[in-house]
Specification:
About 45% of the residues lie in helices and about 15% in strands. It is α/β, with parallel strands linked by helices and about 450 residues long. A five-stranded parallel sheet has the order 2-1-3-4-5, with helices on both faces. A five-stranded parallel sheet has the order 7-8-11-6-12. The longest helix has 29 residues, at about 110-135.
């Protein structure tokens, strides 16, 4: 374990408490002792406790009652029971209630230490498994929706860059999917079994961010009661996602440069240099080049981060994707809210497509979630959409409007663009588009189907 395990000794006999404390402290465990079960519960509630060593026979609350209460409160705490009246019944009952082990008095130093060591090992293992399961469940599916050329170009970069350890800088407006893409990069890399650790650099004050990222030693600052590992250490073997990197202060930038250059960190208030193997993916909505010119961001750090730049296009540049995403969110939120909403009315589609989406995918997602919740029937209509969206009417088709087709464009491409553009102007309604194009709606279905392959 990285930090000394905290062991709580509960026994009504002062002699036992003192001798156990001495034995355990010599092994560098951190130890707290108490003579009552009630007090033990309070300590376990207020402090981080890894293991409780409890006597069974105590005057007020018995060891078994304490065991039950502890497990109910925090099942992750390991409990080892001790008794002078070792009987099989007691042992069986303790194990059934979730104790890790049962040791007989008079206590033998070696037996106590071995039991504690094993219990702590199991705890670490369970913890690791849980982290692994979480990493796997969040990385097993990809929910990326989009067909637009600009979006697919972005995904191509993701696929190419993901397997390497290269640092990636994701830039894009808010709500465009930067974090989603960072997760996708991690998922497609050979680090996917190790943790993906996101950190929002703008959410914490400077000093807290420093210790959050790099950890701190005990006593590094007021309130640092315990030594703590930072997110870089937690991301070991995996990927750290530094969101809003443009908001970091100068001292944090210096430390980040060091990790990127040397793969080394130092905990706040510590001297020891630690090596970390972590892939860095950073994101920002800011123009970092400008920040560099203005002296707000270190140039050397900028170049280290910007090994591969991933530019995420805003939604208004992803032609056709608004409607695909809208359908995707409709289904997701209908399922989540157990509602039978299935479709959009033509007017609603037109409004969705005509709106500029300054908040990008996030704004669209929120609008659809709200519409699903408000919707009374099976079809989302104009009045279910936010005011701003409902009033942004689709652009009318004007004479002089059209597609630009340079010489040399293949005919199928002309057809594709014309269909796409007409469909867009028709608010995504295939029947209207078909009428405008003078073909059957089936023809559009077929042509679009051909294209999606
Ligand atoms: N292509 C996509 N397919 C499906 N869902 C998407 C897509 N892009 C974004 N989303 C969803 O939109 C929401 C916003 O995405 P995300 O948080 O990744 O954006 P962001 O760029 O990090 O935003 P911010 O700048 O506000 O932090 C999330 O719920 C995400 O799942
Ligand atoms: Mg984000």
């Amino acid at each position: 374990m990285a930090t000394a395990a905290h062991i709580l000794v509960v026994d009504d006999e002062a002699g036992i408490r003192t001798s156990l404390a001495k034995i355990l402290e010599r092994e560098a465990y951190s130890v707290t002792t108490t003579d009552s079960g009630e007090e033990a519960l309070g300590i376990a509630r207020d402090q981080h406790v890894d293991l409780v060593l409890a006597d069974i026979m105590m005057p007020k609350m018995s060891g078994i009652d304490l065991l039950r209460a502890l497990k109910a409160m925090s099942p992750a705490i390991e409990v080892v029971m001790m008794t002078a009246f070792g009987s099989v019944e007691n042992a069986v009952e303790c194990m059934r209630e979730g104790a890790y082990d049962f040791i007989a008095k008079p206590l033998k130093r070696a037996i106590v230490l071995r039991s504690i060591e094993r219990a702590l090992e199991r705890r670490a293992l369970l913890h690791e498994n849980r982290a692994l399961r979480q990493a796997m469940s969040s990385s097993s599916t990809s929910d990326l929706v989009g067909q637009a050329v600009a979006w697919r170009k972005t995904l191509d970069v993701v696929t190419q860059a993901a397997p390497s350890k290269a640092t990636i800088l994701i830039v894009g407006e808010s709500g465009t999917g930067k974090e989603l893409l960072a997760r996708e990069i991690h998922r497609l890399s050979d680090r996917s079994a190790a943790p993906f650790v996101p950190v929002n650099c703008s959410a914490l004050p400077e000093t807290l961010l420093e210790s959050e990222l790099f950890g701190h030693e005990r006593g590094a600052f007021t309130g640092a009661h315990e030594r703590r590992e930072g997110r870089f250490e937690r991301a070991s073997g995996g990927t750290i996602f530094l969101d809003e990197i443009g908001e970091t202060s100068a001292p944090v930038q210096v430390r980040l440069l060091r990790v990127l250059q040397e793969g080394e960190i130092e905990r706040v208030g510590g001297q020891e240099v630690r090596r970390v193997d972590v892939r860095v993916v950073a994101a920002t909505w800011r123009n970092l080049e400008e920040d560099v010119r203005a002296g707000r961001f270190r140039e050397d750090l900028y170049y280290r981060l910007n090994v591969i730049k991933l530019a995420v296009p805003p939604l208004r540049e992803r032609h056709g994707d608004v409607l695909l995403l809208a359908q995707h969110f409709l289904k997701a939120y209908a399922d989540k809210n157990k509602k039978s909403v299935r479709a959009f009315a033509a007017a609603a589609l037109k409004a969705l497509d005509g709106y500029a989406w300054p908040g990008n995918v996030r704004e669209l997602e929120n609008a659809i979630e709200r519409a699903v919740v408000l919707c009374r029937g099976e079809v989302i209509d104009l009045q279910d959409l936010p005011e701003a969206v409902a009033h942004a009417e689709g652009r009318p088709i004007e004479s002089g409007d059209g597609i630009f087709v340079p010489f040399g464009t293949p005919l199928y491409e002309v057809e594709r663009r014309l269909i796409e553009e007409t469909l867009k102007r028709a608010g995504g309604d295939k029947r209207t588009a078909a009428r405008l194009l003078g073909v059957h709606a089936r023809t559009i279905h077929r042509k679009l189907g051909d294209r999606e392959e």
